[in-house]
Description:
The protein is an all-alpha fold. Helix content is about 85%, strand content about 0%. The longest helix has 19 residues, at about 5-20. It starts with a helix and ends with a helix. About 0% of the residues are buried.
Amino acid sequence: RLGVKTMEALICAQDWLYYQIE
């Protein structure tokens, strides 16, 4: 099951996106 892994990946992607935008 990929509940926690998906959440972790999403948070990572969000962090990366924020970094790219700024």
